[in-house]
Amino acid sequence: DGFPATKLFNQGYSYTYDDVIFLPHYIDFPTDAVQLSTNLSRNINLSVPCVASPMDTVTEASMAVSMAALGGIGIIHSNNTASEQSSLIRSAKSHRIPFASNDIRFVSPDDSIASGSVFDTAPCVFVTENGSDSDRKVLGVVDKVNWERLADKEARVSSYMNKNTVTLPNTYKFEDVAGYLAAKELEFVPLVSGDGSVVDVVSKEDVERIRGFPKGGLPSVGEDGEFLVGASIGTRETDKERLEHLVKAGANVIVIDSSQGNSIYQIEMIKYVKKMYPDVDLIGGNVVTMYQAQNLIQAGVDGLRVGMGSGSICTTQEVCAVGRGQATAVYKVSSVAAQSGIPIIADGGISNSGHIVKALTLGASTVMMGSFLAGSTEAPGAYQYQGGQRVKKYRGMGSLEAMTKGSDARYLGDTAKMKIAQGVVGAVADKGSVLKFIPYTMHAVKQGFQDLGASSLQSAHEMLRSGILRLEVRTGAAQVEGGVHGLVSYEKKSF
Ligand code: XMP
């Protein structure tokens, strides 16, 4: 019944995730028995197969910390100077506990807090000399209880702020902070660095949420005892200098960022990195064919990033006429990479948990995501309101806007004088914290694996290669049937 993958993917069609569907197999274990632990690259293990893409609207320190806290990893983008990128790595690695996803809000002593809505996302407001996050030395703290008791909401915060709020050093481990909150019956506690600057604020709710992470979802911590953090580079001469800064800052894995990775520039860079920093894992790409993959594997990569033009903001296939449907690309590249023991990252085109199940079953060891993580609390940038909806900007690194800031190396040759966009700028709706929706998504992925009768990624890969798992192509009508259809929206009426 159905087709084995070898037959389905050798018919001359380029399929993407939505084109194909797996046939269910046999269940003989509970959902919780599914293990999603995996390899990002030859020497880096993760307990959750999720990677945040090196894009300037997706991965900076906050995203990297949260992804590592969840058991995945974030790759800090390089659309900045080497020193900016290094300080983002340092900042991410300086966190000891799973990041509290709260906003950290500041006001100056002369300000007033007119509306309590600030306490929806922040457990307290910090009063600092200039009232902005450039000055994080705390003079006092206002919490919701303080504020609610206040008769005159126009009062200056200096007149009622709490000047004796207890703080803890930000080097405290999660369990110590949790124990302190419980023992003192506190709602929240600010964590401060050596000079008294506030770094984080952990609330009772955070403790409950973090404790509720799925079992086995161990944080990604390296041998240095710090969170695993990756960083991207390009293939120019200046990237060699950048690389030195990134390695010094503690980057655990380097990703060479290119839309067509099979080039003399990348191969030379791979050889250079492996010679200079043999202990740092190196991921090459992007590739979509077996030939491209073989060349980069031969050059010495420890992992491969797969995808060309499948990203939600990508226009590469339209502009350059090259690329491949992502399901076919993942299957084809993984079939050569597996022979050399090189894990692959399915990069781009993930918009639901079913896509993750498909990518991982077709041979990927991890999925890299842009739009799925954009719009979250942890994504860089501020929220804004658009047509009544709270959104954050999400842009392709090959969009003119991003290239103007410097990411042209990924999409242009060294000598190109004219910028041709291979990506677009858009916005993504607020989806809350990745600390909440990634564990939920991973649970859905586990259910997919259970339906396939695969209790781990390794067993899914074996079942696919041996032909036990079967797939089919979905017709257009079958795809419509597979989605929500035939409904009008239901509006709750009160009678
Ligand atoms: P998703 O679908 O997760 O895709 O939003 C993220 C991936 O898309 C790639 N990327 C681009 N591709 N033009 C492209 O053709 C671009 O401007 C661009 N920016 C990012 C990248 O691989 C990322 O991980």
From TrEMBL:
GO CC annotation terms, alphabetical: cytoplasm
Active-site annotation: C314, R410
Keywords of this entry: CBS domain, Cytoplasm, GMP biosynthesis, Metal-binding, NAD, Oxidoreductase, Potassium, Purine biosynthesis
Positions that bind K(+): G309, G311, C314
List of residues binding NAD(+): D257, S258, S259, G307, M308, G309
Pathway: Purine metabolism; XMP biosynthesis via de novo pathway; XMP from IMP: step 1/1
CDD domains the UniProt entry points to: IMPDH
GO biological process, one term: GTP biosynthetic process
UniProt: IMP binding residues: S312, D347, G348, G349, G370, S371, Y394, R395, G396, M397, G398, Q422
InterPro entries: Aldolase_TIM, CBS_dom, CBS_dom_sf, IMP_DH, IMP_DH/GMP_Rdtase_CS, IMP_DH_GMPRt
EC number from the UniProt entry: 1.1.1.205
Domain CBS: 161-220
Description of how activity is regulated: Mycophenolic acid (MPA) is a non-competitive inhibitor that prevents formation of the closed enzyme conformation by binding to the same site as the amobile flap. In contrast, mizoribine monophosphate (MZP) is a competitive inhibitor that induces the closed conformation. MPA is a potent inhibitor of mammalian IMPDHs but a poor inhibitor of the bacterial enzymes. MZP is a more potent inhibitor of bacterial IMPDH.
Required cofactor(s): K(+)
Localization annotation: Cytoplasm
Coiled coil: none
Broad class of the protein's primary localization: cytoplasm
Quaternary context: Homotetramer.
Entry's family note: Belongs to the IMPDH/GMPR family.
Functional summary from the UniProt entry: Catalyzes the conversion of inosine 5'-phosphate (IMP) to xanthosine 5'-phosphate (XMP), the first committed and rate-limiting step in the de novo synthesis of guanine nucleotides, and therefore plays an important role in the regulation of cell growth.
Protein name per UniProt: Inosine-5'-monophosphate dehydrogenase
